[in-house]
Amino acid sequence: MSTHATTRRIAFAAVTLLIAVAIGVYALMSSPQQGQRSFGEALVGGPFTMVNQKGETVSEKSFAGKPMLLFFGYTYCPDVCPTELQVMAEALRQLGDKASDIQPILVSIDPARDTPQVLADYVANFGPQFVGLTGTPEQVKAMADAYRVFYAKVENKDDPKAYLMDHSSIIYLMGPDGKFLKHFTYSTDAKALAEGIAAALGR
Predict the structure, then answer these.
(1) 148-159 pLDDT per residue, tens
(2) What's the CATH code of the domain at 23?
(3) Which of 38, 156, 167, 195 is the S-S candidate for 32 at Cβ 3.0 to 4.6 Å?
């Protein structure tokens, strides 16, 4: 692996860890402890308007009543994204009937290339229940900001169309009411993810 690639991986891991810590702090502050006063709800998630892989405009209300398992990535991602989506798919398989109402979602942070059709072809690889979301750059940024997601374009001087996207790699579990429940970092395997989801949802 080149020095540049190694440096990027280290930077990526550091950013992901910092974001995970920040999310944990938000969640901790939002959860009332015995004898302590709550500071309010976790500052993760919120209203959004996006377009799904069928070309339909959707919002958080479109998934009301279903726990959401979200990952922010992009279809041209060479390694992290397909790995995480495979982990999500396997965790849901392990949960079986307990996961029947859980909605797995890939939120694209690369709207320039991830059209609804591209997303449709991509998410189908991980299971028929997967949903892909894209939108305008403004819509994507608003949703990423709401979930405390970092992403940035990495230019390719040799081929401008073959750019990469640096991004945090965190899986978010949102409750049926759309409220933040738990997050899982890149090191979480399918078994741990399945157990974490079941515990958070009380299943």
Answers:
(1) 999 999 999 999
(2) 3.40.30.10
(3) 38
- Range(s) of the domain holding residue 115: 3-34+43-201
Per residue in 51-95, pLDDT (tens digit) is: 999 999 999 999 999 999 999 999 999 999 999 999 999 999 999
Place of tokens 């992403």: 151
What are the tokens at 55? 């070309």
| Total domains present in the chain | 1
